[in-house]
């Protein structure tokens, strides 16, 4: 379950907008989070709260395949990213770092600042301000397990007993 305020963006938000390339020499997640989305939304990093949700249009995360983009969002406190479609590598990188991603056309139901709640297992996203609800294909159990463990590396360490 994820819940928080919505940050709404449009189509084709690329990884350079999620975390600008000029910050990629620093691998510290907190440092990356401090610059998340700054070229598309300068107020994001200073205003985002733990559990907030990004809602976007098509092709979210396009561009380079840098893992720092989903890592910056997760470290900033984002609880989930919901978009009509994702760049394939970005989608997988989100799962790998433990950031829930939902493919769903929800942008028409939400505005920035709306409060939302997502049930990953049930496949529902609710707008707590308007009462609207959108359904999506629930994530498979094994992906839910990866996310619950905090990403692919912690999941595999747990499975291998390390």
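-> sequence recovered:
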């Amino acid at each position: 379950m994820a819940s928080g305020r919505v940050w709404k963006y449009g189509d084709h938000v690329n990884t350079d907008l999620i975390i600008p390339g000029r910050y990629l020499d620093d691998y510290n997640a907190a440092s990356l989070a401090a610059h998340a989305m700054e070229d598309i939304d300068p107020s994001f990093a200073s205003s985002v709260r733990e559990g907030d949700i990004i809602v976007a249009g098509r092709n979210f995360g396009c561009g380079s395949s840098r893992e720092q983009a989903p890592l910056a969002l997760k470290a900033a406190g984002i609880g989930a990213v919901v978009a009509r479609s994702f760049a394939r590598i970005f989608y997988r990188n989100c799962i790998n770092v433990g950031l829930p991603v939902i493919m769903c056309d929800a942008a028409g139901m939400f505005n920035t600042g709306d409060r939302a709640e997502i049930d990953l297992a049930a496949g529902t996203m609710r707008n707590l301000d308007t009462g609207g609800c959108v359904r999506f294909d629930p994530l498979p159990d094994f992906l839910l397990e990866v996310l619950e463990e905090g990403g692919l590396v912690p999941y595999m360490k747990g499975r291998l007993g390390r």
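The two ends are 27 Å apart (CA to CA).
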